[in-house]
TrEMBL record:
Highest taxon, organism lineage: Bacteria
A Pfam family assignment: DUF72
Organism: Sphingosinicella rhizophila
Protein name: DUF72 domain-containing protein
InterPro entries, sorted: DUF72, UPF0759_sf
Length: 247
């Protein structure tokens, strides 16, 4: 099977204390956790940047600790997406992206997760898109159903911006793709941020991921079901399924 796009699979974060003994050895110092994670995965989604904007030197530190080929997806600050709701974001967006660029070659897609209970606002989205630099890959995750429509998908595609497929209970999206990459977020196999995914479900995702890669899109997939270490097991399982199917 010829695969044109690169497939990257990882977790939404790595610094979880409850992973000690599940993924990280009991006696391993926390400062060594990233090295342990990066030995198993070649990408991670920076969830921490959603809750507070890291300093520029923190992004530099993340760049320096990354092995060759490792990539970070950066989740945009909730100040931009939830508090400002994309309005008048010239300065906060420039600050976020300016700092994120300190990741250098390790920078991956920038994810904008929009809030629930905020209905589709085409003009707000258009205005915000006009601020996005074309040399970075941008992805939008919609948590309110009115945003998941052909109009928003066409708008993203017209500006080479990607659509995030996710399975959040109550707002799961179709398996759509737009722009240069396919981006997936797995939020929980049996509940919100918890529970393993059934193998049959991961096998279905394997087919979709390979189809996207064959079409030429890079694929970025992250498991956010960190409770109980399910994300680790699911990420490893999905990766093994893709490797087997690619033979």
């Amino acid at each position: 099977m010829t695969v044109l796009g690169k497939i990257r699979i990882g977790c939404s974060g790595w610094n979880y204390r409850h992973w000690r003994g599940l993924f990280y050895p009991e006696k391993m110092a926390a400062r060594r956790w990233f090295d342990h994670y990066a030995a198993s995965f070649e990408t991670v989604e920076l969830n921490t940047s959603f809750y507070h904007l890291p300093k520029a030197e923190t992004f530099t530190k993340w760049k320096e600790q990354a092995p060759p080929g490792f990539r970070y997806a950066v989740k945009a600050s909730r100040f931009i997406t939830h508090m400002k709701k994309l309005k008048d974001c010239d300065e906060p967006l420039a600050t976020l992206l300016g700092r994120a660029r300190n990741l250098g070659e390790a920078i991956g897609p920038i994810l904008y997760q929009l809030p629930p209970r905020w209905t589709f606002d085409r003009q707000r989205l258009v205005d915000f898109i006009s601020l996005l630099p074309g040399d970075l890959v941008h992805v939008f995750e919609f948590r309110e159903k009115s945003w998941v429509c052909e109009e928003s998908l066409a708008l993203l595609g017209a500006h080479h911006i990607s659509f995030c497929v996710h399975d959040m209970p109550g707002s799961a999206t179709p398996r759509w793709a737009s722009g240069p990459i396919a981006y997936l977020r797995f939020h929980g196999g049996t509940g919100k941020y918890r529970g393993r995914y059934a193998e049959r479900d991961l096998l279905e995702w394997t087919d979709w991921i390979l189809a996207q890669a064959k079409s030429g899109r890079d694929v970025w997939a992250y498991f956010n079901n960190d409770i109980g270490g399910a994300a680790i097991e699911d990420a490893l399982t999905l990766r093994a399924m893709i490797a087997q199917a690619s033979l």
